[in-house]
Amino acid sequence: MNKSTFQWPIRVYYEDTDAGGIVYYANYLKFLERARTEWLRSLGIEQDTWLAHRVGFVVRQVQMDLLRPAKFNDELIVTVKVERLGRASIVCHQQVMLQDGTVLCEAVIKAACVHLGEAGTDVRAVPMPAEIIEVLKRAS
């Protein structure tokens, strides 16, 4: 992996699985989200700080391919790599893999920058703040 690929470790807990000990498909989305959040945090982008200014990111599109099952107690690596950076959105390629590099899940996630109106109303796409774009450009 090159230096622009972020990695985050995750262990599969019992709560992540179905009765057979296999990770429930929707939980991969949680793993991907956690890795993107930690990636942003590692870059100094604290989402709660921006939320105080009513700026946030929402997932707009997900393409996910489940290749092999993760199981209870597996130690996973979740990656994040910027595929495309736009004025108001970012597209990330992500993988969930075993420690040995076996890819279990691949995903392409598009997130849009939005202004959050009062009480969840008037949510609209806006350009990303320049500070965020600069950090993301340097990281990708």
UniProtKB/TrEMBL annotation:
The keyword Transport does not apply. Gene3D superfamilies: Hotdog Thioesterase. The keyword Protein transport does not apply. InterPro entries: 4-hydroxybenzoyl-CoA_TE, HotDog_dom_sf, Thioestr_dom, Tol-Pal_acyl-CoA_thioesterase, YbgC/YbaW. Keywords: Hydrolase. SUPFAM superfamilies: Thioesterase/thiol ester dehydrase-isomerase. Residues 20-105 form the Thioesterase domain. Pfam families: 4HBT. It comes from the Bacteria. Belongs to the 4-hydroxybenzoyl-CoA thioesterase family. This is Tol-pal system-associated acyl-CoA thioesterase. It comes from Pseudidiomarina fusca.
